[in-house]
């Protein structure tokens, strides 16, 4: 897809593309694929160490969306729907390959993503050392707390969307975020606000 087409596609709302896709518009389907493929691959790689299988899962998700487009929900938050679909697909793959025992939820998946706060926001050596320590604190969090932070600050999902994706209720999702942030705030003494680092510096 040319750069000019990609630039134009950025201004098209997800809901419009989703609606057009349901009506069989291949261009809208392709635009959604191009828009979210990288995010989905990155998220999939945070759930599984098998990159080739992750690619297969993401492609299968899009294949199913196209094949079963007539039965798709009318109104969805597209990004949250896609992330959730990839997570469920990987869970089924794990179950099939006996990586964990059969389960009705995706809770058994361990979140593998390593947080890395970029040094672009760091202005002095002392803060740089504290940021390195913050990276360690982030990566020492329990996997579910790490994933909740990733979904909230890296993928921009709401608490409701995180709850649905993780197959927990709203309060449980909120608790995951609260406990993670509480742990970080107890240790973070840097001059840069913690939330700013999480929302702009996590890659």
Pick out the low-confidence regions: 99-106
- Biggest beta sheet attributes: none
Counting H and I runs of at least 4 residues, what is the number of helices? 10
SSE run: HHHHHHHHHH
- How much beta, percentage-wise? under 5%
**Based on DSSP secondary structure assignment, what is the total number of beta strands?**
0
How would you state the average pLDDT, rounded?
A: 81
Q: Roughly how much helix do the residues carry, as a percent range? A: 55-70%
What general outline do the C-alpha atoms trace? elongated
State the end-to-end CA separation. 25 Å
CA radius of gyration is: 18 Å
The structural class is mainly alpha
How do the strands and helices of this protein lay out in sequence?
Blueprint: H1 3-9, H2 14-22, H3 26-45, H4 51-67, H5 78-96, H6 125-140, H7 143-154, H8 159-166, H9 170-187, H10 194-201
What's the gist of this structure?
The chain is an all-alpha fold.
Question: How would you characterize the overall build of this protein?
Answer:
This protein is mostly helical and 203 residues long. It is 66% helix and 0% strand. The longest helix has 20 residues, at 26-45. The chain is elongated and about 55 Å long. Residues 99-106 have low confidence and may be disordered.
